[in-house]
Amino acid sequence: MHFGTLKGGAALIAACIVLLNLGCASSKAKYPPVPRDQRDITVQDGYFYEVAPGDQVNIFVWGFEELSGSVPVRPDGMLTTPLIEDVPASGKTPTQLARDLEKQFSVYVRYPIVTVIVNGFVGLPSQQVRVVGEAATPAAVPFRKHMTLLDLMIEVGGLTEFAAGNKAVLVRYADGQQRQYSVRLDDLIRSGIIEENLGLLPGDILIIPESWF
Questions:
Q1: Neighbouring C-beta atoms of residue 77, cutoff 10 Å
Q2: How far is Cα 84 from Cα 192, in angstroms, rounded to an integer?
Q3: Among 23, 49, 77, 211, whose Cα sits 20 to 30 Å from the Cα of 182?
């Protein structure tokens, strides 16, 4: 099953609409809980990190120290190295980027061997998990394999004192369709009910409304 996100700001706009609706909702859960077959779900072994704008990449060209170094991926998804300008980087795995750089360096040096190492991960929107609303530090967090809801809440510092954690919503896109599920963050974080933990997928959005009373 393929999981993706809406393009541009559409996903966050949809999240904000859900957040506003939740603020006006009663204490009764507005959405169904996450189905059992999706609570322990993990991404397949074929998941690989793709370079994103804002990432810092170390480029090592064996035997050519002057061509090696650390460079940022620009907001337009390109990077620049010695001898080569405007290399498309965003959306490629580090291995794919290394092979592309080898082809371009081969114009200037014989049989270049290139390794790309990513530092300072940002992640493409489709490879992030985003948290909006009443988290201590709302953020877009790069997804990592076996990431859980509890891991995500640790990343964003937990809930604010005004959060309605048990009215939080997980927005998930599956096969091009948006689905919304209720999650019980108060039970998980404040009451320690570990059964409320669940596996996350790249592209998930967690919306935490404010308690109105």
A1: 17
A2: 53
A3: 49
pLDDT at 7: 47
* pLDDT category of residue 164 using cuts at 50, 70 and 90: very high
Task: Decide: 165 and 208 in contact? Cβ < 8 Å.
Answer: yes
> For residues 6 and 13, what is the distance between their CA atoms, to the nearest angstrom?
10
Pair 4, 10: CB distance under 8 Å = no
d(CA 19, CA 170): 11
Q: What is the pLDDT of residues 27-46, one digit of tens each?
A: 456 899 998 888 887 766 67
* Predicted pLDDT of residue 27: 47
Residue from 192, 125, 128, 204 nearest 165 by CA = 192
Token pair, residue 187, equals 């039970």
């997980």: which residue's tokens?
Answer: 170
Calpha distance 49→75 (Å, rounded): 18
Name the E strands within the chain: 56-61, 69-72, 78-81, 84-88, 114-119, 128-133, 140-142, 168-174, 177-183, 205-208
> For the chain, how many residues are written?
213
- What are 31's two structure tokens? 């959405």
Give the Cα separation of 85 and 142 in Å (integer). 27
